[in-house]
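S1.2 Input.
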Amino acid sequence: MPADGTFRNYLASMKKNFTITFLFHLLFLLLALFLVLFFQTVSARPLSGFTVSITPNPVRSMMRITVSGANANEVLLVEIYSVGGMVVYHGSMRATGTRTVKVFARPAASPGLYYYRVMRRKNSQVVGGKVIFQ
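S1.3 Output.
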């Protein structure tokens, strides 16, 4: 080791560089997490009173989708998909007024957690949620 301490200076500068790099990456990850959570929260909010619910939840055999806030005769697309993204139900329903109900048999899918979304064809609004099949 040199007598003038250059090796110690080198180690000190490496430690400083590592700390700065680590803090930069940590800040970047926190920013990315914030943006993901922020945009998920914003996109999950129902727009202009458009709401959807599935009852009963958990579903055994028959399920009821209740949609509020759609216009009469408006076509609504319904999708139910697994956690892995596989679509287990895809269909449509026509709104009959400000509150529309559709009752249908549970899709032939394994018991577990599924996601649903109802899309308004007219202005591309999407409302979704979780449903459990027993």
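S1.4 Remarks. The helical segments are 6-44.
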